[in-house]
Every structure is written in C-alpha cells, then in structure tokens.
Amino acid sequence: MLMGPPGSGKGTQSARLAGIYSVPHVSTGDTLRAAVKAKTPLGRQVAETLASGGLVSDALITDLVRERLAAPDMARGCILDGFPRTAAQAETLDTMIDPAELIVLLLAASDEDIIHRLASRRICDACGITQSIQDDTDYPDGCPYCGGNLVRRDDDHPDIVRRRLATYAAFATPVIDFYKGRKTFHVVDGLQSAEWVTAALCGHIDADVTLMRSRTARF
Ligand code: AP5
Ligand code: MG
Questions:
Q1: pLDDT per residue over 109-137, tens digit each?
Q2: Fewer CB within 10 A of the terminal residue: the chain, N end or C end?
Q3: Phi and psi of 64, rounded to 5°?
Q4: What is the pLDDT of residues 84-115, one digit of tens each?
Q5: Active-site residue list
C-alpha cells in the first residue's frame, strides 16, 4: 500500500511497481475520477467532493475496495494507491486482508514541492499517462505516447491543491500512528528522482516478502 500527500508520487510509483511485480494497480482516486467522467451514479455522488478536495465517505470507499479486492486477479496481491486514508479505512482494511501480508510505504514530500509538482502535472485525456511540463509550450503535439490532449486534473488548481493538502494533514497522522509500530511500515523520500524512489520501494518490498515467506515456510 502506498500512502503520502497529494503529488508525492503514489500514482507514478504504483504504476511502476504494478509492472515490476505483475500485480494490479488499484487507485481509488483513478476509479472515482473515471466514474465522474462517465457520469455514473457513483460519479454523480462523488463529483462535488473530488472537486472540493475533500474525502468521500469511508463507507462508500471501503465498499468499492472490498469489491475490487475480491476479484480473481488479486490472487498474487496488488498495489493499493490512495487507500486507506483515514484510521477507519485502515481498520477496515485489516479485516479484508491478512494484516501480516500488508506492506505500508509512505512517500514523504513537503508542501512547497508538492504545489510546484502539481502545477506542472498534465494527464493525457486519451491514454491516461501523467507528464510533468516545464511550461505550456511543452508538447505542442500533445501526448508524446498517443497524441491525446494533455490536460490539467480538475483538482490540480492551486486553491484545491491547498485544500487537498489540508485534508491530508487532518487525516494522515492517525493512519500513520495506526501502522508505524509494524515492521512492514517504511518511509521513503518522495522528493528523490522517480528511479531512486522505485529502487527504495522495491528494496523494502523484496525484504518484507522474503521475511513473510520465511515465516510461512517454518509452519
Ligand atoms: P487521488 O487521485 O489519490 O489523489 P491524491 O492523493 O491527491 O494524489 P495525486 O494522485 O494527486 O498524487 P500522486 O501521489 O498520485 O502523485 P503522482 O504520481 O501523480 O485522490 C483524488 C481524490 O479522490 C481525493 O482528493 C478524494 O476526494 C478521493 N479519494 C481517493 N481515495 C480516497 C479514499 N481512500 N478515501 C476518501 N476519498 C478518497 O505525481 C505527481 C506529479 O509529480 C506528476 O506530474 C509526476 O510526474 C511527478 N512526479 C512523481 N514522482 C516524481 C519524482 N520522484 N520526481 C519528480 N517528479 C515526480
Ligand atoms: Mg495519484
């Protein structure tokens, strides 16, 4: 599970880890945004909350994750991105999976760096790839992968980013307190290069998985 403030690199790193370990990437934010875009009943229910930078209800999000974690492609695990983000969600996750098999990776990043990063983030509206731009003249032909339009995420406007940071500050500490006594809780500097962060995350995952396997082998 990857946690961290908005813009700390959860999505970037989750996509990389999902590729490296061949497991699904489960992003609650991506799921909710897709529902908003498709104007489904769920999308209509959460649109205002996402636009305001607040959190959707624990009940709604845990139902969503419970259903996703029950899917057959979860047999080898997954990369959870953006869930849990309240203490109540963390407690519920422990009832959905074996807590001894959960690795918690916290990406640390300062508010100033995040504000700068999110101001330059653009998402391809066709393939969903995330790009960082220097200025708006970058990528005149659109997405370098598929030519789609590179657009700003609706909640990346500076006022909303500040509200998302405030929301994170209000809810993250109890989640960190919930996990920090566990041997499989790790903090990684999210401000290093993406390659450095991936290597650090893989180092923790590989060490924890080796330990888990050696414990299982003893019984
Ligand atoms: P969500 O989509 O999860 O948004 P978030 O937590 O605000 O995080 P972001 O997706 O903005 O950032 P990220 O950490 O993924 O960073 P990224 O890799 O893109 O949630 C959206 C909303 O959904 C919430 O506000 C809430 O309303 C709702 N929601 C979701 N889950 C919920 C839950 N469990 N409970 C209740 N509500 C929920 O990187 C950011 C930028 O930095 C990119 O441009 C990237 O290219 C760049 N970058 C990344 N890593 C590096 C690096 N190492 N060096 C330089 N640049 C980098
Ligand atoms: Mg993300």
A1: 999 999 999 999 999 999 988 888 988 78
A2: C
A3: -60, -45
A4: 999 999 999 999 999 999 999 999 999 999 99
A5: 10, 85, 121, 153, 164
Q: Which residue has the tokens 């995952």?
A: 205
**Ligand 1 pocket member 49 (CB < 6 A):** yes
C-beta of 193 in contact with ligand 1 (< 6 A): yes
The DSSP symbol for 213 reads H
Token pair 């980013």 is at which residue? 161
**CATH code of the domain containing 176:** 3.40.50.300
Which ligand is located closest to the Cα atom of residue 30?
A: 1
In a domain, 147, yes or no: yes
| Strand, coil or helix: 105 | strand
Evaluate: CB of 62 within 6 angstroms of ligand 1. no
Instruction: Please name the residue whose Cα sits nearest to atom 17 of ligand 1.
Output: 9
The phi and psi torsions of 184 (rounded to 5 degrees) equal -100, 25
User: Which residue's CA lies nearest to atom 1 of ligand 1?
Assistant: 29
Domain that holds residue 155: 2-23+76-218
Q: DSSP secondary-structure letter at 85?
A: -
Distance of CA 110 to the CA centre of its chain: 17
